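Table S2 (continued). Query chain:
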Amino acid sequence: MGDADRNWLHAVLTGVGEAVLLADPEDRITAFNPAAETLTGWKGADAVGRRIDEVLPGLAGTVQGGDRRPLRYRDRAGRERLLTAGSADVSAGGGFAGRVFTLREASPGATADDEDRLERFARKISHDLRSPIHAVVMMAELLVEDAGPLLPQDQQVLLHRIIERVRGLDGQVSELLHTAAQELSRRP
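Corresponding output:
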């Protein structure tokens, strides 16, 4: 790489706000930008030359081939951080030349405990909302089955409407929980 290319690469790595590190085919860090220093607590001079897993345990095995994945990481100050990490393979001369990794904080200021609480909350909501809904449907269906033929037509219609509306509510709760699960899956 010539001086002009090196200067260009340095300008890009320094100017980008996302943490970026470059690694050779043996997963040794060859470049580490200032945003990576801030996010990890490692100085670039200390990180360069070390294996990725020494600086960011789990990174090399977590993301591969353009994926963006969640990564729990304990920085040098001991704070657990939630990151999203991506990678791209670099080719040169028809062969594998290394990888570029990008990192950013998943939820600025969030901790793993925050994410765990959010996940527990979603599970609790799922149970606390769905249990009474299912109980209402079950009781209304039992009424229809046991007493339906004995009830006047207008009351039978009302029971069927209750079942229909509560099932609709169950569908809305399912959609809400599905959306929440998708949001959680995007977080580390």
